[in-house]
């Protein structure tokens, strides 16, 4: 990934972080590497990080549908007072938003849908 694409992804993560009032926004590679983030991913507790790891594995091994396309729907998981909403970004990336359980999951999902295409475009240019 070139430096300017990394900046684009980081900027888009920052915007999504502000719009959702999330604890953290992460763009992950299929190996779990953080390609871009905003917020405080380091403040996520061990249980949340473990569930996040499970989400990455599940999303990346999920087979393609009959038409060869991957499911782009969101997965929502609650871990204590934190919720994780994750969606695939093409074949090799995952977008995860960690937010407080008292936040509106519907609003977070709407903002994710809006940001998803922009992030995908940034990743496609890498």
Describe this structure in words.
- With 126 residues, this protein is α+β, with helices and mostly antiparallel strands.
- It has a single domain, classed as Dynein light chain 2a, cytoplasmic (Beta-Lactamase), CATH 3.30.450.
- Helix content is 43%, strand content 27%.
- The protein has helices spanning 3-20, 46-61, 105-124, and strands at 24-29, 34-39, 74-79, 82-89, 93-100.
- It has a five-stranded antiparallel β-sheet with strand order 2-1-5-4-3, with helices on both faces.
- Strand 1 and strand 2 (34-39) form a beta hairpin.
- Helix 1 (3-20) runs antiparallel to helix 3 (105-124).
- The termini are close together.
Itemize the secondary structure elements and their pairings.
Blueprint: H1 3-20, E1 24-29, E2 34-39, H2 46-61, E3 74-79, E4 82-89, E5 93-100, H3 105-124
Antiparallel strand pairs: 1-2, 1-5, 3-4, 4-5
Q: What's the story with the biggest beta sheet? A: 5 strands, antiparallel
Can you say what the CATH homologous superfamily is? Dynein light chain 2a, cytoplasmic
The average pLDDT score comes to: 84
Using DSSP, what is the number of strands? Answer: 5
CATH topology call: Beta-Lactamase
Number of helices: 3
Q: What is the helix fraction of residues, given as a range?
A: 40-55%
Count of distinct structural domains: 1
CATH class: Alpha Beta
Sequence of strands across the biggest β-sheet: 2-1-5-4-3
The low-confidence runs, each spanning 5 or more residues with pLDDT under 50, are 66-70
Shape: globular
Give the ordered list of helices and strands: HEEHEEEH
Structural class by SSE content: alpha+beta
Give the N-to-C terminal Cα separation: 5 Å
- Tell me the radius of gyration: 13 Å
Portion of residues in beta strands equals: 25-35%
- Report the CATH architecture: 2-Layer Sandwich
């Amino acid at each position: 990934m070139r430096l300017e694409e990394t900046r684009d992804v980081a900027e888009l993560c920052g915007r999504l972080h502000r719009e959702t009032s999330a604890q953290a926004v992460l763009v992950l590679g299929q190996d779990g590497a953080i390609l871009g983030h905003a917020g405080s991913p380091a403040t996520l507790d061990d249980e949340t990080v473990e569930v996040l790891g499970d989400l990455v594995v599940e999303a990346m091994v999920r087979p393609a549908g009959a038409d060869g396309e991957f499911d782009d729907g969101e997965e929502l998981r609650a871990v204590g007072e934190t919720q994780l909403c994750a969606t695939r970004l093409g074949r090799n990336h995952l977008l995860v938003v960690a937010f407080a359980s008292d936040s509106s999951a519907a609003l977070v999902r709407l903002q994710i849908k809006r940001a998803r295409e922009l992030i995908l475009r940034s990743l496609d240019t890498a």
